Amino acid sequence: MTVSYVTTKELQEKREKYVPKGVSNGNLNIAHHAAGATITDIDQNEWIDFAGAIGTLNVGHSHPKVTEAVNKQVEKFLHPGFNVMMYEGYINLAEKLCKITPGSFEKQAILFNSGAEAVENAIKIARRYTGRQAVVSFVRGYHGRTNMTMSMTSKVKPYKFGFGPFAPEVYQAPFPYLYHKPSEMTEEAYIDHMIEEFKDFFIAVVAPETVACVVMEPVQGEGGFIIPPQKFVKAVSDFCKEHGIVFVADEIQTGFGRTGKLFAIEHFDVTPDLMTVSKSLAAGLPLSGVVGKSEILNVADPGELGGTYSGSPVACAAALAVIDIMEEENLPEKAESLGQKIEAKLLDLAERHDYVGDIRRLGAMVAVEIVDHRDSKRPDKKKTADIVKFANENGLLLLSAGLKGNVVRFLAPLVITDDELARGLAILEKAFDHNQI
Ligand SMILES: Cc1ncc(COP(=O)(O)O)c(C=O)c1O
């Protein structure tokens, strides 16, 4: 047998030549294998993973139960195509999703491949159900890179610049950002003000009776892990009910235990009509879904929804294993204690560095805002990039976020061991110290 050994440098050069630069890379090394919260590259260097493939790996890399379920399915068949011949995995997963998502009404679930595809389909379904066209998302929201979801997304560069024209009838409503509230306002006054702004938006920008759906991330992900006040989320949900608008919770980044509950919307005492799920649903396999009220989901006629690869049996097998693991390993509870540990380290770093601004979290959805100085709260994108770069050159996979690129976010697998966490936090500390003013 010939053993070919390709070097990191060779692969980096090949990548540069053959893969367009439009796909960015946070880390320039080449993965060889991974388990739990550690990836080993082809040079045998270990990387502690605080990125989890952007929130995809709540159960960790290569969880043995996921691998076993996937292998078993691969042995049986890969893809009959659900609309050609049905299979058990799709049906069982639909049932499971209906059972574990909030809401005591009759539910159904339909499967797709990517997060953006789930959002697109939630909109198709809401439009058909309501007979209305307009779609409302929120400032700082992120819903994907297809034309429709790009239109709903806030950050112009890099997500939208030069990629228009965008989909019509998409409007972005105001969304509260407590850390950057006007300093003279109390929190309570600011929240009430933002609720007024939200309602005024439907006078100034789009009439509610033309709106099919409001799509909201319960915690804004790419926007910088912005956690809205419960009162605001409730006001949005009530407004939707009052005006016959379908309320869609985009749980693609927040779902599956990340925030300390199975779904983030459960923190806000509201029940969405529809929910989009993906990312950690299938532990790294491409799978997404729309789940919610049967009354809404069942409105489209046969052939109007779906897609060639939608609900791949292999991904469904992984997802069914993930849902079992969530319960067996008590991952939502683990998320809370993981979040507390990361927060404690950030509070410690804040004592030494004036550039550490807001530290916020819901469960293990933790973020820290990097600013010029905490008195000014002025975003510091450069320092954020330096911290993330240092981490990615020194053994820690770390991501930034935020409309202004000044948020470091944490999406470590919820199964991370104490040792992996300690090693990761030690590198994080070095990255912060390295960036001392
Ligand atoms: C909240 C949210 N919605 C939708 C998407 C799009 O998912 P995908 O990249 O799988 O299309 C993402 C991806 O980051 C997301 O965070």
TrEMBL record:
Signal peptide start-end: none
Source organism's superkingdom?
Bacteria
A biological process (GO) annotation for this entry? gamma-aminobutyric acid metabolic process
Instruction: State whether keyword Transferase applies.
Output: yes
What PANTHER family has UniProt attached to this entry?
AMINOTRANSFERASE CLASS III, LEUCINE_METHIONINE RACEMASE
The family annotation for this protein states: Belongs to the class-III pyridoxal-phosphate-dependent aminotransferase family.
Its protein name is (S)-3-amino-2-methylpropionate transaminase
